[in-house]
User: Fold this.
Amino acid sequence: MKPNELQSALYELLAAPLRIEEIRRALPQAGRNELKDALDGLIADGRVMKNKKNRYAQSAHYGCVAGTYLATERAFGFVTPDAEPGADKPDDLFIPPNASGGAWHGDRVLVRVSERKNSRGRTEGAVLRVLRRADKELTGALVQRGKHFFVEPSSKKYPEIYIDPHDLGGAEAGDRVAVTVSHYGGEQLLPRGTVQADLGTEGTMAASIASVLRENGVFDVFPAEVLAQAEGIPQQVEPAALDGRLDLRDKLIFTIDGDDAKDFDDAVSLEPLENGHLLLGVHIADVSHYVTPGSPLDGEAFRRGTSVYYPRHVVPMLPFALSNGICSLRPEVDRLTFSALMEIDKDGRRHGVTFAKSVIRSRARMTYNNVNQILAGDETLRAQYAFLAETADRMNALAQTLHKRRIERGALELDIPEAQVVVDENGEPAELQYRARGEAERLIEEFMLQANEAVAAFMAGRGDPTVYRVHENPDPDKLAAFAAFARPFGYRIDPSKPEDTFQLQTVLRGAQNDPAQRALPTLLLRSLARARYADECLGHYGLKAKFYLHFTSPIRRYPDLIAHRMLQKALTGEAFTGADESMCEEAAQQSTAREFAADACERDITALFVARYMQRFIGEEFDAEVSGVQPFGLFVSLANGCEGLIRIELLAGDFYQYDDQRMTLTGRHTGKRFTIGTPIRVKLLAASEITGQVDFAPADGALPVSPVPPTPPAQEDAPVPSGNRVARRRQGKGRGGSRKGRKPATRKRR
Assistant:
């Protein structure tokens, strides 16, 4: 019996208490040592306990649960219990002050559940023991008191950490540092740690950026052996690499990217066929030719998972020798590619596809801006690029057909404006604006979607292992909350039918031209599940695609690199192994985690740039709109995309009550109500480039003037903590503020 199978059988057996000899009799097929290892593993994981009478049983039988401890900045905490397979997610447990058992935020713990409930109706618990430390590096300010040194963590959820002078690593008082904990302390001992990195002078934006990257496990510097391998790769395509490749160098192929793009990993082509169909070519940089399994480059790419982008910077997944060099599809040079050649009819139906390792020579490095002007009829640009102007027109017509077909099958068009920071040549934020999205951007998106779906359908049809991009059905409760919010606008959404995306399309269409409904697409986005990577094909809800994966960006995403490798094995008939299946599973988990970390970096660092830009407007008034509602205040958004917080204590003249279901703050006496989309005039109070926090207050007379009937008082929970920086934002105490399900203000990740 395999270890996992034995643990599962043992866990089910221990629904009632048993002695060890009874367990052995019930599982005679398990060896003595195997059984001991399985039992020890379940105990170490907190799923099984032994009582004083030496009887083993599931922890729940003894009134205990295992879960993750979530600290707050106010002494109390919460534990998120493990969910049993097939069961609903259990409610968090409230851990009162002095009942944490020495647990730190993120630790896995065993908790005894109490019969008591706190004043807000939440079940209480007490941590019995820490099962596994989160083992997370912390950042904070290094301070000196007398002859002693301490690190004050950036988050107040963590205690001060004592640093021996020999463990300073060259850092000085006043620096922001990264520290690892060597001892977690006790009742009479402070935690101790060792400084791992000096991140710069505390109180500077540079130190804050370095801190965000470090906290999320993002590192600028590549290991020496990785750089050595990358620098040893020739920067021209070698003749031997062309053997067996489809030669497309005489075809009209070109790239279309942003004006400031440095790496070009996709190129496109379009040719008419004799039968009236079109041959759409999507040609992707063949990164797998250079990054081979088990190599230093591959190991580092797996660890990073994705490139990380923030204003005028990139932390690449691959060294620049590859990402900006030999793998980048620059114009007028030979480049190795993996091509998807798709035959598509006038109605946008795909009739066949050919996948092939290829070699191309891009004819032009086009930008979205130039292509948009060409499509709009700019005579100068059409003359300059006469060799591709007509092809661009045909591409745009095909993209519109593909888009129409995708919408007709039920895909959701969540085209939510995306804010961006424009940075000048000195790296200073010069402007805030919404990212332009024209015909060229939509053209490339539609073509990439076609390639991604075609590869996924091919691999799923064969049953071969790969990494899929999946987006599961929304949680019914979240969809029900959205339905309740949309109902006053005349929409009738049935949350019990999440597969019926046409009812959601109706909302999105209705909100397009109605300012009063502007908040609905954002609220819908928050009600949806988050897309992730998986080693099984589960479909993509938002795209309404049965088959979907990421194939088109192997320079900056590790799952795309795996998709290339698995597709090539399928095409060559090479046998798949258990190692391939394990790699796909591990890559899916790692890539999902790294994508979440990258999103956190991009969001938090962008908030620093936004705050720095807004400093010049302190004291000025703006028209704003409520973009989020929390018990501690209102998030408001300006027309330029800046978002900040109005703390609830600044909503003068009434006592405001929070309604979690309706997402409102309502005055108990006046009935004045704030909800998402409520317009409000605000005054900028402060903007910190160190924390990313932007604070507003209502301008004089800015509160709503039309009272609404007050809703019954709701039982409020204390703010639920989550990740380090997220917890501070949700409590209105950290970098910029946040709200549940906030969409990262970065590039879209379908």
Notes: The longest strand covers residues 350-361. The chain has six domains: 3-60, 63-132, 138-202, 224-468+546-604, 473-528, 618-730. The two ends are 40 Å apart (CA to CA). Residues 224-468+546-604 form one domain.
